[in-house]
Input
Amino acid sequence: MRIHVADHPLVAHKLTLLRDEQTESPTFRRLADELVTLLAYEATRDVRTEPRTVQTPVAEAVGVRLSSPRPLVVPILRAGLGMLEGMQRLLPTAEVGFLGMIRDEATLAASTYAERLPSDLAGRQCYLLDPMLATGGTLAAAIQFLVARGADQITAVCLLAAPEGIGRVERELTALDVPITLVTAAVDECLNDKGYIVPGLGDAGDRLYGVAG
Ligand code: URA
Output
């Protein structure tokens, strides 16, 4: 897996505010949205394009447009939804699919409870949105799901990642013949015994949307 840690003062500034426990949900949502747009810029560096010529008021100009099929953006429910608008700001014509994954808080194992995705992802570049790459179980399962549908390039956009999660995704996906990239704002120190990233930012879903039971 190729790992890109976005090294930019604005990323660090926004991430620090997100980490602050004093930051309340409305501000947290806005900051997460802004941070994702910065990460999306890095994540889309190798989005596929094809040549296109346009007529300027002066002359012909050779440029590019996004290739078909369009990229697919897949937020992992629920917390990934808080990243969708920030990603769509840079990729407004991308299609959006949804993957509902939940982790068992006792075993930390991930399972799929909902999906709304094209049945055939052959030739698609996919962008998975999941704020926290913690144990790696959810992301590894989501990547396997997309690859089983035919996705041929997957970029995971995560606000934060833990070394344990990166290690697990790399171990579980070594056999896959599909390029996987992780774009994140930071790789933190470790996980605690509850599977939370340290220092992290707490429960991303709760901080985005409150504790909904
Ligand atoms: N999920 C979260 O929301 N936060 C963590 O620290 C780990 C998993």
